[in-house]
Write a structure and sequence with these properties.
The chain is built from 3 helices and no strands.
């Protein structure tokens, strides 16, 4: 339901921020914002598909690739 997605979005955005901050805290740690699932979808695809504009904005601000197409 859309209400459930809206409630979950801050948690997902916080998780992305935590992962990105851990990259700074742990030198050599790599976070791939463009990793794909078995259908070729990235986290940005999923954020858009599930109506999470805040998460999508955070991913874009962190430099995820905008031109990746799914399968």
């Amino acid at each position: 339901a859309p209400e459930d997605r809206a409630a979950a979005e801050p948690r997902f955005t916080s998780l992305i921020q935590l992962l990105l901050n851990s990259k700074e805290a742990l030198p050599g740690t790599q976070i791939n914002l463009n990793a794909r699932d078995r259908l070729g979808r990235t986290v940005l695809h999923l954020a858009c598909q599930h109506g999470m504009p805040g998460l999508a904005t955070e991913l874009i601000e962190q430099g995820c690739e905008l031109k990746i197409q799914d399968l």
